[in-house]
Each structure stands twice: as C-alpha cells, then as structure tokens.
Amino acid sequence: MFNSLSDRLTATFKNLRGKGRLSEADVDATVREIRRALLDADVAVPVVRDFAARIRERALGAEVSGALNPSQQIVKIVNEELQGILGGETRRLRLAKNPPTVIMLAGLQGAGKTTLAGKLGKWLKAQGHSPLLVAADLQRPNAVTQLQVVGQRAGVAVFAPHPGIQSEFEAPTGNPVAVARDGVAEARAKLHDVVIVDTAGRLGVDAEMMQQAADIRAAVNPDEVLFVIDAMIGQDAVNTAKAFEEGVDFTGVVLSKLDGDARGGAALSVASVTGRPVMFASTGEGLDDFELFHPDRMASRILD
Ligand code: GDP
C-alpha cells in the first residue's frame, strides 16, 4: 500500500533538490504534484483540497533560516501533516479503570470485524489479558460459528447466543442487543478483563443496521468503538465513515486488508474526515497479521 503515492511524492521532492530558495511558483508546482498524487491514491477530494492548502500555506511561510534546505523543509511539512491526518501520536487502547474493558467492533459486512476480533483477542491475551469475544452479529448466517472458530484458533473464549453449530444458511435467532449485554455480564462473572463485541454489518450502510449498532453501543457503554474499514474501498470510504461516525460515534479506526493492493487513500480520508485516529492495521487473513498503527512511521514510510 502507498507504494505508488510514495514514489510520486519522492519524485516531486527530488525536483526541488539543489534549489537554494523556493519561489512561489516552485511551491505551487510542488503542491500541484502532491495534489495529483493524493487524488491518484484515491484520497477523497475535500481531504486533498485541505491538505494541499495547508502545505502551500506552511511552505510559503516556512522560515528560510534553519538547518533544513527548502526541499527538506517541504518534506518535513508534508510528513507532519500526513502524521496529523493519521491521528498524530500512536493511540493505544483505553482500558477501563474498572474491568471489564468493553471494545465494540463496527463496520460494513466483509470489512474484517470477525477476523479482527480474533486478532485483537490473541494480541490482548499475549499481553496477559483474559479477553472474551461476544458474537452479537446475528444477521449474517454463519457469523456466530465463524467467531467460534476464530476464538478457538486464537485460544480465546467466545460468548455466543446459543452454543453449537448453526446451519450455514440460516441466521441465528435472538436479540443482538441482549446478547451483547449478556456477554458483558458473562465477562464480569467469569473475570474476563476485556470484552470484544462483534456486531453485524451490511453490504451497504442501512438505517436498521445502524440503529442496531447504536442500540448495542447504548446497552454496553463501550470504552472503545472501533470502526473497521477495508482499505480497498477507495472513494466510498468517506461516506461510509461519516455514516458510522454519526451512527455509532466510533473512537478509533482499524484499517483492514492493508496487505492488498489498495492505494491507501481510504486510510487518509477516513482519519481526516472523522478526526478519529487510526489505531490498528490488519494486514492479512492470519491471526498474527495485525499491528498497532503508528502514524509517524506510516508518514515516514510514505515519504521514504
Ligand atoms: P466481517 O464481515 O466484517 O466480520 O468480515 P470478516 O472478518 O468475515 O472478513 C471478511 C473476509 O476478509 C474474510 O475472508 C477474511 O479472511 C478477510 N480478511 C479480513 N481481514 C483481512 C486482512 O487484513 N487482509 C486480507 N487479505 N483479508 C482479510
């Protein structure tokens, strides 16, 4: 991901090397190139516009003295702005003072929520926590079974509405809000210190799904609501993210499928339009393909 954006930006900055001073025309030409590179990487148009305007303003106002030459100065500005968009500092999970910490996952169907539940569970377990996965996705046939399988592979306990294997073609019955609430009660009773609530998604945003997610949020009062988004989604990312921001007021973003050939724009767009930090990156189907997201490292990687 970001490879072509990275190449384009590097080439743009190369053109500035050796220049003692940047004219306004130099800055404008550079900003134009940055804008094109971001648009080609699928970053949303309003995000690109704001970003370009900030770079231009800062580049024109940059102090000429200092240890950096003009091209280094622009690289530094772009780096800082990219890092800012991606959430600034690395944002770690907020753990509740009184356990259990409740983490709710939200996002469209296929975004990678169920897989993430397993990854997050395994990762937390390795840090000495005792997580419980809660299967509150009762919409998709097989979702409960899938979470049970993921939990088993991760070595993490799963709370499901009713045990056993469902029919592959039939959605489990039950009330997802009650399941989520019961899951948290179960965690409290069995001394799990983190609860990860998997919720239902649809292929597109719809009112009923969003209401269900909002009801679950209200019922379990989560410490974190993680919005999981497929990095391949491209320009649709902004509308989807805004709908979830309004619907469930998420606290952090998880970018999934970063191992694919996504151009990376979704990542920048979602974080920028919602102002929520990217917290984790999912980089494959395996349970270990998962990492804490570091905005500074990602920004540096883009500009490498
Ligand atoms: P959910 O509907 O949001 O629960 O999504 P799932 O967790 O079921 O994931 C949908 C599909 O995407 C599954 O086939 C997963 O194996 C796959 N998947 C999830 N995360 C990743 C990832 O980071 N990279 C890749 N390549 N595939 C992923």
From TrEMBL:
Binding of GTP, residues: 107-114, 198-202, 256-259
Keyword Ribonucleoprotein applies: yes
GO terms classed as biological process: SRP-dependent cotranslational protein targeting to membrane
Keyword Transmembrane helix in record: no
The reaction(s) this protein catalyses: GTP + H2O = GDP + phosphate + H(+)
Cell location: Cytoplasm
Signal peptide region: none
Any one annotated GO CC term: signal recognition particle
EC number of the protein: 3.6.5.4
Keywords for this protein: Cytoplasm, GTP-binding, Hydrolase, Nucleotide-binding, Ribonucleoprotein, RNA-binding, Signal recognition particle
GO molecular function: 7S RNA binding; GTP binding; GTPase activity
Predominant location: cytoplasm
Start and end residues of each SRP54-type proteins GTP-binding domain: 277-290
Record family assignment: Belongs to the GTP-binding SRP family. SRP54 subfamily.
Domain remark text: Composed of three domains: the N-terminal N domain, which is responsible for interactions with the ribosome, the central G domain, which binds GTP, and the C-terminal M domain, which binds the RNA and the signal sequence of the RNC.
Complex and partners: Part of the signal recognition particle protein translocation system, which is composed of SRP and FtsY.
Entry function: Involved in targeting and insertion of nascent membrane proteins into the cytoplasmic membrane. Binds to the hydrophobic signal sequence of the ribosome-nascent chain (RNC) as it emerges from the ribosomes. The SRP-RNC complex is then targeted to the cytoplasmic membrane where it interacts with the SRP receptor FtsY.
Protein name: Signal recognition particle protein
